[in-house]
Write a structure and sequence with these properties.
The complex is a heterodimer of chains A (93) and B (588).
Chain A (H helix, E strand, L loop, with lengths): L1 E6 L8 H11 L5 E6 L2 E4 L3 H7 L6 E7 L3 H13 L11
Antiparallel strand pairs in A: 1-4, 2-3, 2-4
Chain B lengths: L3 E4 L1 E2 L4 E8 L17 H26 L5 H15 L1 H12 L5 H20 L8 H16 L12 E3 L5 H4 L9 E4 L7 H9 L3 E3 L3 H6 L5 E5 L4 E4 L3 H25 L10 E6 L5 H6 L5 E5 H6 L8 H15 L4 E4 L20 H7 L1 H15 L5 E5 L5 H18 L6 E5 L8 H4 L5 E4 L1 H9 L17 H16 L3 E4 L10 H6 L4 E4 L4 H10 L2 H13 L3 H22 L17
Parallel strand pairs in B: 3-4, 4-5, 5-6, 9-10, 9-16, 10-11, 11-12, 12-13, 13-14, 14-15, 15-16
Antiparallel strand pairs in B: 1-8, 2-6, 3-7, 7-8
Helix pairs in contact in B: 1-2, 1-5, 2-5, 3-4, 4-5, 9-20, 12-14, 14-15
The chains are: A alpha+beta (93), B alpha/beta (588).
């Protein structure tokens, strides 16, 4: 099992859109993944539980992964958080 | 039955009359119906089948709105799809069926009830862009599929629909139900339902009164007057007759004036007439009422309805891009966020103060993200320009230009045209420096008049109405227009006063290049602009500018200018009694 602290960088916090991106990423991996914010814990494969975390912009969440591909899963989520949940502007829209 | 009037908030325009039909709200008064142990397997199968059907119908709903003006609602359906695949939802239902031996309907109901309670509890006090009904809507449809396969909600045709909390899947099909009017609990003019009602032109009033929802019964005769912010229950004969008449003349007025003005070739007008937009859904109104592009886009309204969080650059760029594409090839003048005063704002750092561009320069991250988003959207939409609100000094324009030039260097972008709003009187003395730096100016007459007349929320010490043009306004505009013309900078007006047809000849005569106003106000102004000969307009402008006394100005407007303009409208047999607006008493 591994853990890593990530910062919610998106201006709107962890809301519907970002929660959706997380669920999509988590579903690509075998490991069981949880997000923890201020003593509340959410199954990262559940959009409902993620939305109910209602993590504020700039807050820290801990991602905890347990399973065969836990390393890759955490790395992928870290990238997602750093990339502002894939909402970074794409040139030429 | 007793007749009652409820004061609410008009979310659109028009008057709707008809019997009330009531849309069921989420109602959890269900019985826990149990099943036999050996039916569990069958019950699970039934649930899974209904789940699949609901997923399919949700995908269809999403496709239905994708690439339409209701694209935003599409995101809610994507969210609903995720819910239907969420183990936190389906897992609970399955558990209730297998462990508690509940029937599928009871299990779904119980799960939804728990989820809503949890959602409300966990997110209370925290900013949320999503409401429980936005995703529980999917659960409601799932219940429908358990009963019988349905593809869309069934609503009675005609009549006035009472829908406290209206679900997204109902909102997108409102057009199909031919309802006369709508009453909802939400009173926010930039909410999803308000924008849908505006673009479909369904008379809609937002009403929070608990008494209303208690008193209303199916079939109750109801009047929804979005024009007057009211709902009448069991109206008496007199009220009914008055509103039937008002409804008829409002419709006639709108239709007949549009018929008349759609014949006018905008190239033959002495000035361009554009629309002020605050919502994507107002774009069809621009077309309907014949506005040429958007002379003012109040960008803060594009986002405020959804969340109080600052929208990031990507989301903004996407919205600007979409808006510009819809109004192309006509211009889209995007005004940067105009916050401060009593306006609702995004969450901002504590040190932020003031209004307009001055305030934005404090909130550097917000301004930067917005300018970059506008610049990005401009690369593919050359009809975009950037307009800065409440500009007071050359330095403000220089700071904005530095940012734009920085983006241009980093990304090899072209820089969009830049305009400023003339609202602060002192800007006149900086015009010689400012005008060479900008492409156009636009008079924001609402604030300009307040500042000219020293008005605040307690009124003005010198004028009885700041909504009625003062001689100082015409005089000030004349001075600014002269300087602009010398610098070959085009001039526009996007304040409330531009929508009053009484003053159109004066603005034409003063040599303004553009007027921009709420879309539905366009036809009258356009008609007057096309019918008033240029010589006459110039003469009226000269008279207006020669009057320096407030009393004389009022008298001239009532006795000469007003009758002249009303004559133009009467000539075309426009039923003036149907118009919503009073010429002499401009609304705030």
């Amino acid at each position: 099992m591994i853990e890593k602290k990530l910062i919610v960088s998106s201006a709107s916090g962890l809301h519907a859109r970002s929660a959706q991106a997380i669920v999509q990423e988590v579903n690509k991996h075998q490991a069981e993944i949880k997000l923890i914010n201020e003593n509340a814990e959410a199954d990262a494969a559940s959009i409902l539980e993620l939305m109910m975390l209602a993590a504020a912009p700039g807050s820290t969440v801990v991602v905890r992964a347990d399973g065969s591909d836990e390393q890759q899963a955490v790395a992928a989520l870290e990238e997602l958080f750093n990339n502002n949940f894939n909402k970074e502007p794409v040139d030429g829209i | 039955m007793e007749s009652k009037i409820y004061e609410g908030r008009g979310l659109s325009t028009g008057i709707g009359i008809g019997p009330a039909s009531i849309m069921p709200d989420l109602n959890y008064q269900f019985k826990e119906v149990h099943i036999y142990h050996d039916s569990v397997e069958k019950e699970l199968e039934r649930f899974n089948q209904a789940l699949e059907n609901t997923k399919n119908s949700t995908r269809k709903l999403r496709d239905h709105v994708t690439n339409t003006l209701f694209d935003d609602l599409g995101q809610l359906f994507t969210l609903q799809e995720s819910l239907l695949e969420d183990p936190g939802f389906t897992g609970r239902v399955v558990l209730l069926i297998t462990e508690d031996q509940l029937c599928a309907e009871s299990a779904v109901m119980k799960t939804m009830k728990q989820l809503e309670e949890q959602f409300v509890e966990k997110t209370s006090g925290k900013p949320q862009s999503t409401r429980a009904i936005d995703f529980l809507d999917a659960g409601m449809r799932l219940l429908g599929h358990l009963e019988a396969p349905i593809s869309r909600p069934r609503l009675p045709h005609g009549g006035v629909l009472i829908a406290r909390r209206i679900a997204p899947s109902v909102a997108v099909f409102l057009d199909d139900y031919e309802i006369e009017g709508l009453v909802v609990e939400n009173t926010n003019r930039s909410s999803h339902i308000a924008v849908v009602a505006q673009s479909l032109e369904i008379p809609t009033v937002g009403l929070t009164s608990e008494n209303f929802y208690r008193d209303i019964k199916v079939g109750c005769p109801t009047i929804v007057s979005a024009n007057r912010n009211r709902v009448y229950l069991n109206p008496d004969e007199q009220q009914l007759a008055t509103h039937r008449e008002a409804q008829k003349s409002f419709r006639q007025f709108t239709t007949s004036i549009c018929q008349e003005t759609n014949k006018i070739d905008p190239d033959n007008l002495p000035l361009q007439i554009r629309g002020n937009l605050g919502l994507m859904e107002e774009i069809p109104l621009l077309e309907k009422y014949g506005g040429r592009g958007a002379g003012l886009v109040r960008t803060e309204f594009l986002f405020l309805g959804h969340s109080t969080d600052m929208p990031d650059e990507a989301i903004q760029a996407e919205i600007y891009h979409r808006l510009a594409r819809f109004v192309a090839p006509e211009p889209a003048n995007l005004r940067t966020f105009d916050f401060g005063g009593d306006k609702e704002t995004f969450k901002e750092p504590d040190e932020v103060e003031g209004r307009g561009i001055y305030r934005e320069l404090f909130n550097h991250d917000l301004l930067r993200a917005q300018l970059r988003a506008m610049c990005r959207a401009y690369q593919e939409n050359r009809n975009i320009s950037i307009m800065l609100p409440l500009v007071g000094t050359l330095e403000e324009i220089e700071q904005v230009k530095q940012l734009l030039q920085q983006f241009a260097r980093e990304k090899s972008w072209e820089i969009p045209p830049l305009g400023i709003m003339v609202e602060i009187p002192s800007v006149y003395f900086a015009l010689d420096d400012i005008l060479p730096e900008v492409d156009y100016i636009s008079f924001g007459t609402n604030d300009l008049m307040n500042y000219l007349l020293g008005a605040d929320r307690f009124g003005s010490p010198v004028a009885d109405s700041v909504n009625f043009p003062d001689p100082s306004l015409f005089g000030f505009m004349e001075m600014v227009i002269e300087k602009a013309k010398n610098n070959r900078v085009s001039t526009a007006l996007c304040g409330e006063i531009g929508a009053n047809p009484l003053f159109t000849p004066v603005f034409v005569g003063m040599g303004l290049d553009e007027l921009s106003m709420a879309p539905m106000r366009i036809p009258e102004v356009k008609l007057v602009a096309s019918r008033c000969p240029l010589e006459k307009a110039r003469e009226l402008a000269r008279t207006a500018l020669n009057i320096t006394c407030r009393r004389q100005n009022k008298q001239w407007i009532r006795e000469e200018l007003g009758p002249y303009v009303q004559e133009i409208l009467r000539e075309k047999s426009i039923p003036l009694e149907g118009r919503e607006f009073d010429y002499y008493e401009q609304e705030e």
